Amino acid sequence: MDGRYNIKDSERDILSHSERADWIHILSLDPILATDVYERIHNDPRMRKHRLHRPRKTEIRDTVEEIEAMARDTVLSRLLVIDVRKESLPKLRTAYNKVVGYNRKDLNKSCYVILIGDGPWNLFWERKTLDVFVPYLSSHRVDFHPAVFFYDPFLHYEKDEIVRGAMDDEFVLPDKIPARFVPYFKKDESMGVDKIRRYFRAIDKPAEIRKQRLRRLRSLYKKRMAEQFPDHKDELKALLSKKGIRLASEKLHLYPLFFEDWVYELTQKAKQR
Fold this sequence. Notes:
Elements: H1 2-5, H2 9-12, E1 23-27, H3 31-42, E2 51-53, H4 60-70, E3 79-83, H5 89-103, E4 112-117, H6 133-144, E5 148-151, H7 193-201, H8 207-228, H9 233-239, E6 245-247, E7 250-254, H10 259-271
Parallel strand pairs: 1-2, 1-3, 3-4, 4-5, 5-7
Antiparallel strand pairs: 6-7
């Protein structure tokens, strides 16, 4: 990599990188989400020629270092899928700054960014509307220039669900489903997000079963969001579609609905540059 480009880090921020390949980088501290993203793309026949890169380390501290070390290689990718949930974002700020800096001149041209996040803290406060997403999405646009932002309800925990350890404790990400989803899954408070993700991506099942489970997930999202925003039925219909919903100057999508379609379209678009 260094021999191929033979340029200093300070120069990378202003350069365009024409040698991009059929690569996709998946950047997250969460192995459960990274695996879900990886498996969804890897098992899409349209993406069979693409090379996927994701962190291999299991410890948080090691994964942070690994992602930072991967930053240089992202100049070979046509697509970057980046986890920007609030809990882990501070630990990855340095690495993400490098990633954006190395790719800045090519963003939304020969390189696209998909963000997956957990939404604003005050989303579940009483009488909030979907417009609560606007400043949240705007801040991410300034930092990452994403082509698409996916809100993942299974990443979104309320403040009292986040376990704050002592200063010397090892940082951990929640791996149980958010409490608001427990009633929909046999009221099993111990059910893990990993099990839920594996069930809905159903990569070992026939195509019809995968479609059926995706419809079930869409129905779950529709019911949950309708309970939260009862006066916004038309907006929720758009949010559940591939087009997503426009909020002021920002657009919002639900992960993983139509995720693989967006991955395919953006990689094809990047190839045309």
